[in-house]
Design brief:
This protein is 28% helix and 40% strand. It has helices spanning 14-24, 54-60, 100-108, 111-114, 121-133, 196-203, 214-223, and strands spanning 5-13, 29-30, 41-49, 65-74, 79-87, 90-98, 136-150, 155-167, 176-177, 183-191, 208-209. Strand 8 and strand 9 form a beta hairpin. The protein is globular.
């Protein structure tokens, strides 16, 4: 486990977003996934948990160490399985792209299909969790992302908008909004050193830093 990537999150207003986006566009590139007209792409993430909601209570208890599986589907339909580890602000992520057959097998615990993919370590890891810990899809988080990248430091700055949450087992339920309309999440991710000009743009502002988990925030919103 190589925790070399830093991740910082800030709750910002739409006014702050407009100003920062203008500055970022002068020095960073738009993410390749982005739509040419909207500069955004949609993300549909299915988070996994056990029958005790362990991932939720780890966050609620303030533990610095977190691990979680999620299936992330992009607006073009491409899906990958991700396993994320986080200690404080440092993270690492393993991922593998999955085809539609494997995608559905993961969602429905179709083991006859899953067993054919056990040569892939991440699939094997998930299947072990499903069998031993009753790991299963728990929550769906949908949102729109606008992302900017810079080669130096492998920097990725994202604006996550219109976040909604829904339980997997409540297909007919309404999605619950996670933010008020004038707010969104700013995430800054980088490996090694953050270039000075980006540090000045982001960290010399009065943005409100938050220890935010989309999964935890969705879970809390849905029980109220």
């Amino acid at each position: 486990m190589d925790l070399t990537r830093a991740e910082h999150k800030f709750l910002i207003t739409t006014d702050e977003y407009v100003k920062l986006r203008f500055q970022l566009r002068q020095s960073m590139s738009l993410d390749v996934h982005a739509d040419a007209h909207t500069s955004e792409y949609h993300l549909h993430s299915v988070y996994f948990d056990d029958q005790y909601d362990s991932r939720v209570f780890e966050k609620a208890d303030g533990l610095e160490y977190h691990q979680k599986f999620r299936l992330r589907t992009y607006g073009n339909g491409a899906t990958r399985l991700e396993f994320k580890t986080k200690i404080g602000s440092m993270t690492s992520k393993q991922d593998v792209w999955v085809d539609e057959e494997l995608h559905q097998a993961i969602l429905t615990a179709k083991y006859d299909v899953l067993y054919r993919y056990l040569h892939e370590p991440l699939i094997e890891h998930l299947v072990v969790g499903m069998k031993l810990d009753d790991l299963k899809p728990a929550l769906i988080i949908d949102y729109d992302r606008e992302a900017y990248v810079h080669k130096e430091g492998d920097v990725r700055i994202t604006f996550d908008k219109n976040l909604t949450a829904r339980r997997v087992d409540q297909v007919e339920a309404f999605d619950r909004r996670l933010f008020e309309p004038k707010f969104m999440m700013l995430e800054v991710k980088y490996t090694g050193l953050l270039p000075d000009f980006i540090r000045t743009l982001v960290f010399h502002k009065n943005h409100q830093p938050v220890a935010y988990s989309k999964y935890y925030a969705g879970w809390v919103a849905l029980i109220h």
